[in-house]
Amino acid sequence: MKDVMDLTADEAAEELARLAAEIVKHDERYHGDDAPTISDAEYDALRLRNKAIEERFPDLIREDSPSKSVGSTVQSKFEKITHVVPMLSLDNAFNDEDVADFVGRVKRFLKWPDGEALAFTAEPKIDGLSLALRYENGKLVSAATRGDGAVGENVTANAKTIQDIPQNLIGENIPEVMEVRGEVYLGKSDFMALNKRMEEEGKPVYVNPRNTAAGSLRQLDSSITASRPLKFFAYAWGDVSALPSSSQFAMVEQFEAWGFSINPLMGRFENTAELIERYRLIEEQRSSLDYDIDGVVYKVDDLALQSRLGFVSRSPRWAIAHKFPAELATTVLEKIDIVTGRTGALSPVARLTPVTVGGVVVSNVTLHNEDYIAGIGSNGEPIRAGGDLREGDTVTVYRAGDVIPKILDVDVSKRGDGAERFEFPEVCNSCGSPAVRETNEKSGKVDSVRRCTGGFICPAQAVEGLKHFVSRNAFDIDGFGEKQAEAFYEWGMVMNPADIFTLQERDARSLTRLENRDGFGKTSANKLFRAIQDRRLIDLHRFIFGLGIRHVGEGNAKLFARHYQTIEGFLAAMDASATFEGEAWDELINIDGIGETAARAAVAFLSDPQRRSVVDSLLENVTTVPVEQADTSSPVAGKVVVFTGSLEKMTRDEAKAMAERLGAKVAGSVSGKTDLLVAGPGAGSKLKKAVELGVETTDEDGWFALVGPL
Ligand code: IVH
Question: Is 255 in contact with 262 (CB distance < 8 Å)?
Fold first, then answer.
């Protein structure tokens, strides 16, 4: 990855767009589906990179920037509740020095006299999900999840089933409005018992207690929530009509008096050394606690000081979370398997002696590529102290934060004498073709991934390609999943996507009918044929995505579909770009959002005769639905427009999108085909060329006068 300091503005804008989309996706998986696919550390890295780029290019900060929101966008399954006081998150400290810095920052901000003690609380950071409980006149009226920090989900009925949550506050000093906040969690032992039950019932098991708690709280049927032994610790508050105490510590003690559970490890301390001491104590007890914690939270105790300190963007200035280092486990790397994927990439997977890390059994870990196995990072620097990984090695494994397991290091002292360096295969083990590391034409860098050159003839690529073709966001054929893709390929019935659409016809003439094969019957075979029939009409972007062109994910497929509008248009443009130069090529790489890598991959894919013949056969059986036609009545419909110079009333992206919406094609350079050049201040050679060629030119005002407002 490029250093932020080396990014051009264009690259930065592109990356910010990518990061925004990616962070939203992971937010949804984490908060919406309670099924994250990356670790917390990796997620943090995405956010940090986004932040770093935004700091360098403040002009490029997007409307939908992830830095403007906390956590997920709210799912629609529950009613929404707008938090009167936003639910924010905490800044992190990763070592003692960060903690000392935090205390120093707080004191400087408050101009705290040297040598005078300043009290902080310290308490475990519970790894659950936060919940805001609103009491009016002591009666629980609503419970809301954090959601995106501003708006959460109304889970009142479910919260009422949690024993630790009083439905009525008892005792004294109860304000008229009192919103108590805290963490809903599931005990480790309850989690294991529940997962055991799920397994016995043949249901999917949860990854960890946190996700289970989240999944349990977000049930539409509150009797399911009631059947899960969720618990709750109160530690904070939101909207309050009158604060009953003046310190953090006293507030939480008040919660206890009203009937809440509070964490017994919370304490009040006078200096950094004492905070760290409490941190060590909690860390020592961590594994014997019956709930997951991932750090210790320090908070300024005096509430008047808290309010003076206030907030910076997403987090309070008066609190910090001191995170625990990731939990480690030691195991043996038994074997390295190489798997060929859809795009031919040879992916090494470490098979481990199963080991429990953070409550989850880990037995496979991706090793990314051969440099990673050799212990070399993408910048050429060593990535682990022990060097390369060998079969039989003793390794330490962690799940940084949560989800995806990784190898931290290898213990070379435990390596047997006979252990040999792992030799990464140079041929594909599926088809025997040479596997090579390509050189990137643009950067001249050698790719870290070795790829099978078998392409079309490689069974592994073919099967993976089939799986991709029928996947949910592509052709989404009911009853044709990964298992069926493998079986049909093995039976020689479906060797490529086009075969799917002739399956029924061939089956009718076949000696071994599908209905007589393993896993099928008359009903399921007919159902499958019907599902295939249903897909003879398919959205253009699904068709393009389904082809499985490298670097052409759903997003790029949509961009192609929107730009070229018909399959004929798309294919003609790819053909005309076969030399990677000329007008069609220029047009292609100027599609907003399409990078050169994806463009090259699409052209190369479609100029491969075998792949092309599959596409052609597919089109004999499948009709693509063109994307919604752009406005053809606009004055620029069908025209080729070029924007140049610095635009002042719209961004370059907006200009492109607007022109495309109006049915124009946006090109990057001026040629005989250009119909209109829109030139902002500072326009240079393109304006000159347009004038020379007699192309109509205008400025931004002229553009708006022509097409109307943005
Ligand atoms: S105080 C303004 N205390 O951590 C933030 N949060 O990263 C006030 N959490 O959303 C939060 N244990 O879900 C606080 N003892 C604790 C906590 C805690 C867990 C969670 C909470 C919050 C997140 C912030």
Answer: yes
Q: How far is CA 654 from the centre of its chain?
A: 25
* DSSP per-residue letters across 546-566: HTT-TT--HHHHHHHHHHH-S
Q: What is the DSSP string of 362-413?
A: EEEEE--SHHHHHTB-TTSSB--TT-S--TT-EEEEE-SSSSS-EEEEEEGG
Q: What is the pLDDT of residue 75?
A: 42
Beta-strand relationship, 177-186 and 230-240:
antiparallel
Dist. CA 369–CA 392, nearest whole Å? 18
Ligand 1 centroid, distance to 280 Cα (angstroms): 19
- Cβ(667)–Cβ(586) under 8 Å? yes
All domains in the chain, ordered by first residue: 4-69 (1.10.287.610), 92-323 (3.30.470.30), 325-453 (2.40.50.140), 455-500+502-535 (1.10.150.20), 539-625 (1.10.150.20), 640-707 (3.40.50.10190)
Determine contact, residues 539/553, Cβ cutoff 8 Å.
no
265: which 2 tokens? Answer: 């490890």
DSSP string, 326-343: PPEEEEEEEEEEEEE-TT
**pTM for the full model?**
0.54
Residue closest by Cα to atom 24 of ligand 1: 89
Q: If you take atom 21 of ligand 1, which residue's CA is the nearest one?
A: 130
Name residue, tokens 């090259």: 600
DSSP codes, 615-632 = HHHHHHH-EEEPPPPP-S
* Gap from CA of 210 to ligand 1 centroid (Å): 14
pLDDT in tens, 329-378: 899 999 999 999 999 999 999 999 988 786 677 889 999 999 999 999 88
Give the residue from 90, 75, 70, 92 showing the smallest Cα distance to 23.
70
Active site residue 125: yes
Which parts of the chain have pLDDT scores under 70?
31-36, 39-41, 69-76, 358-359, 400-403, 628-631
Match 């670097």 to its residue by tokens. Answer: 551
Distance 216 CA to ligand 1 centre (A): 19
Q: Which amino acid is at 176?
A: E
C-alpha distance from residue 207 to each of 204, 215, 243 (Å): 10, 11, 39
Ligand 1 atom closest to Cα of 263?
Answer: 15
